[in-house]
Amino acid sequence: METSISVKNLALSFGHLDVLKDLNLEIGKGEFLVLLGSSGCGKSTLLNCIAGLLDVTGGQIFIGDKNVTWEEPSKRGIGMVFQSYALYPQMTVAGNLSFGLKNAGLPKAEIEERVNRAAKVLQIEPLLNRKPAALSGGQRQRAAIGRALVRDADVFLFDEPLSNLDAKLRADLRVEIKQLHQKLKNTMIYVTHDQIEAMTLADRIAIMRGGRILQLASPNEIYNRPASKYVAEFIGSPTMNFFKGELKAEGGAYSFTNGTLTVPLNDYQFKETSPAPEPAWFGIRPEHMSSGDAAQNAPVRMNASVELVEPLGSDTLARVNALDHTLWVRMDGQANIKNGDTINIGFDPKRANIFSKNNEIRI
């Protein structure tokens, strides 16, 4: 894949605080990459470094074949959409979209053509003569995206653009941003702390923590084969269920045991062949747990006491106690259970993930 953005050994420090640490990242041309992580992990800082809004302490940034590490933001060929709309309140939508182009000295006909094209793509043509005060939150965000779009940039940077919107509007604009990428096929980097946005938008996700990238992979790879216990806990709601115990090997056959539970691992795909026995975490997602009649055919089965029921319509979440562990089980939306019920639950070990207790890396 042709590279659009290359970040090499990037470091950023504020005094004695290291915010980004020897970070490397390659982003393909036309790729939609999401930087995902909790607050303070460095994702917005990395985006601002790529945009040229922060001076780096070390390393280099390339956009295409050009080293832009010390270039001004206006010369990097990027369009940026911020969390706050940052629209000029005294200007109309058309004025906001065209302002940067006028400053750049583009011909009037080209400015008008670019503004109309962006308005058509974003479906804001009827709003061009309105001022921001007369727009809804979603319309303002579309206008902010349009201001980046008119620059005709090869790279678009989004810094949590939907976080100020309500849940339904976020879902609607998420779809529009994905369709926008499919139409334009530009390189897009999108910062969010919302895992649903990351999973639904991204070609690849970079999960960050402490100024480093912990895992860079497709949404499916991150969901099904998380590189570490932290990644496994961060992706998925409710979080992955965990048992603490030992990975054992006897006669070439592996199993996980914690005293009350023994799980054969005949079909589990280890990251490396013949791993050494060690203390470990055994993780299984709530949606990979079966219950009721379906649990009767599961390779591993147990009884559980229901502690809490959360009916969500499309499915039901149950928090249960099994073998002195608190577990989440995702059930059918019409599941007929209540607090205090005793139910059968089970799972298939090949859907599990096992992590070293020493370094929490996937085994």
What does this protein structure show overall?
- By secondary structure, this protein is of the alpha+beta class.
- The chain has 2 domains: 3-233, Rossmann fold, CATH 3.40.50.300; 239-356, Nucleic acid-binding proteins (OB fold (Dihydrolipoamide Acetyltransferase, E2P)).
- Helix content is 23%, strand content 36%.
- The protein is built from 8 helices and 20 strands.
- It has helices at residues 43-51, 93-103, 108-122, 137-149, 167-184, 195-201, 219-224, 229-234, and strands at 3-14, 17-28, 32-36, 58-63, 66-67, 78-81, 155-159, 187-192, 204-209, 212-217, 241-250, 253-257, 262-264, 278-284, 289-291, 300-311, 315-322, 325-332, 342-347, 353-356.
- The strands form 4 sheets. The chain has a 6-stranded mixed sheet with strand order 6-7-8-3-9-10, with helices on both faces.
- A hairpin with a 2-residue loop joins strand 1 (3-14) and strand 2.
- Helix 2 crosses helix 3 and helix 3 (108-122) crosses helix 4 (137-149).
- The protein starts with a strand and ends in a 7-residue tail after the last strand.
- The mean pLDDT is 92.
